[in-house]
Write a structure and sequence with these properties.
Chain A is of the alpha/beta class. Chain A folds into two domains: 265 residues, TIM Barrel (Alpha-Beta Barrel), CATH 3.20.20; 68 residues, Arc Repressor Mutant, subunit A, CATH 1.10.10.10. In chain A, 39% of the residues lie in helices and 23% in strands. Chain A has 15 helices and 17 strands. In chain A, helix 7 links the parallel strand 7 and strand 8. In chain B, the strands form seven sheets. Chain B has an eight-stranded antiparallel sheet with strand order 11-10-16-7-8-15-12-13. The longest helix of chain B is centred in the C-terminal third of the chain and has 18 residues. In chain B, strand 28 and strand 29 form a beta hairpin. Chain B is of the alpha+beta class. Classes of the chains: A alpha/beta, B alpha+beta. At the A-B interface, strand 8, helix 9, helix 10, strand 12 and helix 12 of A face helix 13 of B.
Amino acid sequence: MAARPPEGSSPPADGRLPDGLAESRADQPLSLYLHLPWCRVRCGYCDFNTYVLPPKAAADVVPAYLDALGAELALAARILGPRRVETVYFGGGTPTLLAPFDFASLLRSVRAHFDLAAGAEVTAEANPETLSPAYLAELRSAGVARLSLGMQSACPAVLAVLERVHTPLRAVEAVAWARAAGFSSVSLDLIYGAPGETLVDWAGTLDVALAAAPDHVSAYSLIPEEGTKLAARMARGELPYPDDDDLADKYTLADERFEAAGLPWYEVSNWARLGHGCRHNLAYWRSADWWGFGAGAHSHVAGCRWWNERRPEVYRDRLRSGLSPAQGREELTAAQRHFEQVLLSLRLAEGLDMAVLSGPEAVRADGFAAAGLAVVGRRGPGRFLRLTQSGRLLADRLAAELLD
Amino acid sequence: MTVPRPGQTAPRLLRNFSIIAHIDHGKSTLADRMLQLTGVVDDRTMRAQYLDRMDIERERGITIKSQAVRLPWRVDGEDYVLNMIDTPGHVDFTYEVSRSLAACEGAVLLVDAAQGIEAQTLANLYLALEADLVIIPVLNKIDLPGALPEKYADELAHVIGCDPGDIFRVSAKTGAGVSRLLDEIVGQIPAPAGDPAAPARGLIFDSVYDSYRGVVTYIRLVDGALQHRDRILMMSTQAAHEVLELGVIAPEPVKEQGLGVGEVGYLITGVKDVRQSRVGDTVTLAARPAAAALAGYRHPNPMVYAGLYPIDGADFPELRDALDKLQLNDAALVYDPETSAALGFGFRVGFLGLLHMEIIRERLEREFGLDLISTAPNVVYRAAMEDGSERVVTNPSEFPAGKVAAVYEPVVKASILAPAEFIGTLMELCQARRGAQTGMDYLSADRVELHYTLPLAEIVFDFFDALKSRTRGYASLDYEEAGEQAADLVKVDILLNGETVDAFSAVIHKDKAYDYGVRMAQKLRKLIPRQQFEVPIQAAIGSRVIARETIRAIRKDVLAKCYGGDITRKRKLLEKQKEGKKRMKTVGRVEVPQEAFVAALSTAGEAERA
């Protein structure tokens, strides 16, 4: 979740949605995100809403927070009514700091309040250093079937700059354990463009990652987020800022290697074997309905976005007092929804449905195709704009240019 | 005995004088003390720099517009009337200074006892001597710990040719010596010697627009008299007006029935524009006009031009209105609309000099709330064409491209005053600015006055800053127009993706063209964001490219991460970028943010050129 909450209006204390909104979405699938904000140590580049969990405090803090998550699930069920849940995602933080039975109990809570579909995708983010074969087997039994492993890099120097505590090959090992434990889909998270990383370093990371034969890879360029230790070191000149040309080279290399390994791109920063695209993340990118539970989590239902209190104690206290933990909210105008649709679908391989474009926007879209930045594909009667590799590298600029 | 009334004051009781001083040497403070000592302002209503009306004047401690105050002063039982005529204190306003001095019989030469005389003061002193004024030399700030009254008294005595013992010492701040100085003004400065019976001739030494009263004209009656309701004639324009009001400043305006020979006062005719009542012009009576105007009238000519553009194009009408309003009060300000492909709609504005330009720009921004972008200032060039025709160039982008027989640029006679230790560095600086030394005088053992002829164009960029930084602030500069010279000048164009950016064209001496081209190209490469295609930046003289830089095509403009919580933030970021795009100017298919133009132009003169 993003570092700073956006500016929005104050949501009602009981969290209810604008009139008629929940009812109008009753038959739509729902995705759930559960935020588990703790880590053993804070990585210098991370701007997520995370907190170091002192081992002694864990016994008090964690159960209270999990209770609050349960209370928010009950609140969501009251507001939305019965909904079919297609994906559940445990994110963090380091969710795998929790015991497997905590996952089991949270999933029981989900089932108690919603209709968790039989084929639902249930993912947990994991840091390799928290895992063991036994832990993974229990996590699988608890109902988690998809694992997203924070590998980041296979280069020790890069891991050191990122302040990651695991050894380079631990993630590869964890993939094998996950397979053995019966996880149906395993993803690796990679970061490129850390200070000092060469193109050769990155190629090495790609080799190691692909050798582990993941079903899915996310590869993000390092962003020095405001307020992080990393950004401060860059501002002081201790570390160089990422160079856009270097990032473009690394993106291009990764895209080619993944594609060749049978993992075509389906989102700007995500690649997967067919059928292994992350359905939960796709829900974000397709502007489906999703509810984020936990401190600082964001939610979206049919053009209404809101976000929770960031501090876990405040979040917990609000729910204890029977209040919605939402801290800000915005109701998107039709123009804003269009803006988001263009912005998000241009990032997807399935592309942007050109039927939603205005006349001038469609003309510009054809211009992108003529310039080699996109191709126009047909699916049935529809035309879809799909960015090429060079177009993807300019996706933000193209979205801004395309829109009226 | 009572204080003589305006219109009924015997000339022998009048003393008209100015104070010549450098900025910060304490002129306004001395004037404040005189107002108090003569009793025209009581201690309760006194405020610092009482006579300086505009905020900018008070903040910068400089006086832009002069005023004349009538002060009563008794010496040996007789009541005299002193007219203190304030003078502007900067090089750009030399002509106005000369008219103020022409309205006087004497001048107080005021010099800071801790700093000594400065170049502009010296120049104004020469103007006063040329006008045959009696000079009363005064050292001010004698109470300061750093004051060196002996040293600077010697220097002043050397400059004027008097005895160091004749130099007055005052502290305008404490008032010490000021009363005696007033006595001395009565004693030393001659009474005016006009002909009371001759047809009226009044010298206009200042003209100020007031939004309630229209133009207030300050005059010194050289001959004859003027009465309320007289019909007057401006001798340069032959325009006739009725005197709706006349009076004196004491120090607030006081209506009177008439002004007599030798007197100083103001008149109001209802005209709305200072250009109809010009400094230096002669006022006479329509019914009984003088045969000849007073000598010395000159039409002010702009020396420096710059393009002024609103940063927001929608502000163009506001800029026009603002310039119209400022012109009511500033006969030297000229402007014409112009269009720049890079900057949009704006004005080419002519100024007397750099300070004038700075003041106008600051007033436009401060008083009218405008955000402006200004092109680099340039001088006026005269191009003699091969076919015998001639072109006057006030905008470098209009500099003729070929078939030019010769180009002439304005030159100035400059004098620089500085401690002698800086002679070497100053000579280097002037040499680098194409200066020719014409002389050097020692004011004292360790202070020297250097005389140079310099192209005005070399001064309008950053000469003054360079001068100050090379002399730790000790040097002072004065210059006056000194005709023109033929010079080897070329126009350097800056091309973006093959298209000339008109706002960056500059007329430069051939030997410096390369430097300018390289510097601008490098600067623009850093300022212009990467585009989706490679953008060449070239500097060219005609079709010959003298410098080239390349902005490589952008390859990456996408944020990798886009989770649920990032979507709102991302949308807002893109919305903001789209807004920013609206403020971009497109030149040669290249999108250039307004800020890049501002940055490129505002620092155009900063690089080390000398």
